[in-house]
Structure formats: structure tokens, C-alpha cells
Amino acid sequence: MDKNITDITGTWPLANGVEIPYLGLGVWQAEDGAEVQQAVKWALEAGYRHIDTASIYKNEEGVGQAIRESGVPREDVFITSKVWNTDQGYDATLRAFDASLDRLGLETLDLYLIHWPVAGKSQDTWRALEKLYADGRVRAIGVSNFLQHHLEELLTTATVKPMVNQLEFHPWLVQPELQAYCRQHGIQYQAWSPLMQGKIFEQDIVNDLAKKYGKSPAQILVRWDLQRGVVTIPKSVKQAHIVSNAAVFDFELTEAELTYIDGLDRHERLGPDPDIFPK
């Protein structure tokens, strides 16, 4: 990948020119209130400028509160949320977006995603996202957990292509063909569960590289993501981990090392399969 990687505040342009910070904090499973507020504040203090939440996480209020109290200007923080499956459809999505904004205490979002493909609804949901985008209420729109056939179906009726596809991504689930398809269509690949929910420590090569570079296995994987051109949002509510996950800008993996990690792919999901979830 020839995308420039500089520091924790670095960004890559989406297809519409909006700059997305390539490293962010995910807040899935962070409890609303003190836990998520503290995590977001620690991240912003450490230099993160990208926070990823969703309506189903039920912590949008805490995220918004933390951003307001952080002292970091709103325009300097890239905030993502997502419409949940039971809120899909045109009118329901517009209502869900308003509700997310209310909970976050914001006037606009930087990125709004369809959380999962829902048969018979995702195209109408996408029309709602296109309206929100056209109305200037969100700076970029995209999808999450969409495989190639989901994207192909969406593109038969879309007037705006998704700018982001957020997917489970780690050495056991690389999906190079899907990555290539997204690149072909100008869709930025983004990783959730990049640290393999703790299974990272089962990978000898990752542990060996951690020793070589004096880094943690988590830092090796975050760096791999970035050098492969994948926006990544590791989640944590622990300050040490939040700070450590971002300490990846003082070393570089070789192409041979990147390729070796690619080769760990076993097409194995740690999360749900988009083809069977939700039923």
C-alpha cells in the first residue's frame, strides 16, 4: 500500500475527499456512563481523533459527553455511528439517525454506516443515508459487514457509492478478494476486531515480530493493518492499552513480514457471518 502513514493524527481521504483518521478507538461493549466516557477521554488525550460507536452499543450518550468535556474542538474529532438492523428501512433509518444525533448531542456526524446487511431493507436504508448525505447532515456514508454480493446488490440502485466498508479483519480473516473489490470501487476498508479478541497471542509469527521490534503483538497487528491500507479501530477501556495501541509510528514491517501475516489467513470468523446474521 502506498498510503502515507505519519502519526496518530494522520488521515486518508475517502472517495469524496473527506479525511478519515486511519487509527481510532472502538467502543463496542464499553458501558455507557463513566466507563465509555473515561475511555474516550483517555483516547483523545493520547491524540486519537476518531471515535467509532453505534446505536446498538447503547453508549452514544457517554461518547458525546466525553467529547464535549474533553476540550478538543468538535471539528477535530471524526465520529462514526451506525443504524441497527431493526431500524432499517427508509423512514425508520431517518428516525434512527435523529435519535443517534440526539444521544450524541451533535448536529452532524462524520460517518454513518449500515451496521449489517438486511435482506429486503438495505437498499431503502441506503436511500435514507444518501438523503442524509445530500442534506449535509453527515459528511460520509458507508456500510459495515457487507460482503461482495451485498455490495453488488446495493450498487444496482445506489446513486452514491459507499465510502467505507467496516468489516471483521485480522490475520485469520483477510478476505483479499473483498479488499480488492472495495479498492476497485473506491470503498475504504476498515477493520473491526483487529486484535482477534485476544487470540493474537496464539500467533507465533506475531509474537516473534513483537520481540524483534520491541513491540506488543497488538502493536504489530495495528501496524500491519495500516501498512495494508486498512483503517483500524481497536477497542479498549484500559488507558494503558489505548495508549499502547497507538504507539505504532516508530517502526515499519517489511513487505515479507506483511506477506507472512497475510498468509495466516484461514477464512475464520470470530464474529457473526454476514450471510446468516441477522436471520
Automatic annotation (TrEMBL):
Residues 23-265 form the NADP-dependent oxidoreductase domain. CDD domains: AKR_AKR5G1-3. The record marks K82 as: Lowers pKa of active site Tyr. Keywords: NADP, Oxidoreductase. It holds the Pfam family Aldo_ket_red. PANTHER family: 2,5-DIKETO-D-GLUCONIC ACID REDUCTASE (PTHR43827), NADP-DEPENDENT OXIDOREDUCTASE DOMAIN-CONTAINING PROTEIN (PTHR43827:SF3). This is Aldo/keto reductase. It comes from Hymenobacter psychrophilus.
